[in-house]
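Hey, does this match?
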Amino acid sequence: MFEYSYRSTGVFEPVFHSHTFYEVYYFHEGKCNYLIGDQIYNLAPGDLILMYGMTLHCPKIDPAVPYIRSIIHFDPAILRPYLELPHAVPIMQPFERFKNYRLSLRGDDKEELERILLTMHRYQQRGDDVGAGRMLLAFVDLLHFVYDLCLQPLSEQREFSSDKEKSVQDVMALLEDRYADEELNMERLQRELHLSKSYLAKIFKEVTGVTIFEYVYRKRINEAKIQFLLYPSLAVTEVSFRLGFKHLAHFSRLFKQHVGLTPEQYKKQMKSDRLTLHKAGDGNEFI
């Protein structure tokens, strides 16, 4: 998935939330304290926040002042073609290493970032396949720009605020590799991380706001949507087994719970959308 909102001014009720996709948040203007986990960031225009999503977060704004921000939500899977190129730069490292990180951009850096955001917006407005492709390329350029700014902090060993935070990072790293393993269970996590099941469950919920297996199931369902998009001929059963579900009924029940449609209904809707776009010739489909 890929969603871009440029210079959004919408008013909303601030609420703590988390999600399985990554987020790039840029603060244009206003008065805002951004709460991410146990950290509070007092934002200034030019602040860019990288978020891996699962930590509970919420902006607290002053409604008396215009609040303008640009937000990009994306699943790293859309970047696979670029990450697999020869000599590819590991542009996802800032998200993977820092999880949540603020860059305070000023001067030329601020101007360059805003130029890239505007370029993405202009391509988005085209509403065709070429525009969508060029917008994604501009986003890849943005990630290279961010990676370049993060080279020094990436080279320094990160200090964790607590042993608990480091343990949760270890859990997250293991889950990123094993979330589709049908033999994944608390006993295995306990054995591989050398921490008790009860402690792992407790600290993960405290830091991320969700249980370990809520996170795993969200990841699996999100990956299923990507599989259906990239490989429309794949059967629901095949996708279910690929993502570690032992029973198709369990997969279908969770998919409907998270998406609002059964896997079969979701595939039919995507097929219908593709046909509609093809007939209309407007090429608005984009991930």
